[in-house]
Amino acid sequence: MxxxxxxxxxxxxxxxxxxxxxSASTRWxxxxxxxxxxxxxxxxxxxxxxxGNPHVLLPHQVNYRANLAALKNAGATAIVAANAVxxxxxRCGSGALVVPDQLIDYTxxxxxxxxxxxxxxxxxxxxxxxxxxxxxxxxxxxxxQLQLEPVNGGVYGATQGPRLETxxxxxxxxxxxxxxVGMTGMPEAVLARELELPYAMLSLVVNPAAGxxxxxxxxxxxxxxxxRGMDAVHAVLAKLASMQE
Length: 245
Ligand code: HPA
Hints:
Radius of gyration: 17 Å
Strand content: 25-35%
Largest sheet: 11 strands, mixed
Order of helices and strands: EEEEEEHEEEHEEHEHEH
Number of strands: 13
Distance between the termini: 10 Å
Shape: globular
Bound molecules: hypoxanthine
Number of helices: 5
């Protein structure tokens, strides 16, 4: 069953016809919220609000291990994660929807593996391509069916937050090759990989990253772009659901 993780601006899916809820309790602790199971565009899907509903958890406070485990326990077989990001490169301006194909992890101090309980063999998962190619292409296909154009590919830089970056940090990230910057993509993506769940990301650019515009980044600006962009995010996720067998 396809599962969605909703980030900032997507704490609820109003078009989901709820059929039940799965427990937030896992052996890794409590997920941000119970996993909702419902019908979207005629297909059963799962939904989890990454920051809780209402939105209370900051990116570094999210129990990513519990979130991914709760989704797996609820029957998830693939995950599409929506998130709000800052735009670094020109093609990722405010309002752009990006389906990244790479990431760089700048986070620290987060529980980022299931393999640290010393009970099993030492395991290093392959993470050369952090996003599932088939799922990414399906997501891009969903955009095309709606005559919408995503930025197909790009590098997501995951920062620790909750503060925004300095202009110099964004310059460094740009030199590293990052197109967008967010605070939640890691360790979410790698935990999905460890659970062998195909994972893809749909990122809405809600502000120019630090130093990319001659003004302060305000929550009001972010919220206005979020508000405008969320209809497209909902439409793409519903289209993607309708494409599942
Ligand atoms: N930086 C990091 N995370 C973000 C940003 C940003 O500029 N905008 C939305 N999430």
